[in-house]
Design goal:
Blueprint (H helix, E strand, L loop, with lengths): L18 E5 L9 H11 L10 E4 L5 E4 L8 H5 L5 E3 L6 E3 L9 H5 L6 E2 L6 E2 L9 H5 L5 E5 L5
Antiparallel strand pairs: 1-8, 2-3, 4-5, 6-7
């Protein structure tokens, strides 16, 4: 009988200092101020459609926030045919290089929650970059439903 060897990718574990956004639907009031702060920070206008995060009603009428999770092993990065998506190994932030992106939408299809979106006016994808580590959405959340926590705290 032959032995089977499993081949797994050589993934670096996420550094201890990486941060992620954690949303508490029990605290969320659905005000969508996080969405307006995001659109203003990234596009200099208050427009829900331009926000890189979304607040929607869940199946039990709770508010659910859809946002990039800056995955440990991002499928969006793996799917990009032109290597326009990268992950900073120090911070864990996953970003899109809009100058390199060809707008093929492979990242959106590969993302389990379809986060990357086409940036208006460009043939390039965009997604949350955690505002470089200081997310505007968290600053405006008066209900404290959004927090920036270390990846370790979330597990």
């Amino acid at each position: 009988m032959e032995s089977v060897q499993l081949i797994t990718p050589d993934l670096d574990p996420a550094p201890m200092n990486t941060k992620i956004i954690l949303h508490n639907p029990d605290r969320c009031t659905g005000c969508r101020q996080c969405m307006t702060a995001c659109s203003f920070k990234n596009f200099n206008t208050y427009n829900y459609d331009l926000s890189l995060c979304k607040v929607i009603r869940g199946p039990d009428k709770e508010f659910v926030r859809i946002h990039c999770h800056h995955c440990s092993d991002p499928m969006c990065l793996a799917s990009c045919p032109v290597s326009a998506i990268s992950k900073d190994h120090e911070t864990g932030i996953v970003t899109v290089d809009k100058m390199r992106c060809i707008g093929c939408k492979s990242c959106t299809w590969a993302c389990p929650i379809s986060v990357p979106q086409m940036q208006r006016g460009l043939k390039a994808m965009t997604k949350c970059d955690l505002c470089g580590g200081d997310p505007s959405c968290i600053k405006v959340c008066s209900a404290k439903a959004i927090q920036l926590v270390s990846r370790d705290e979330n597990h």
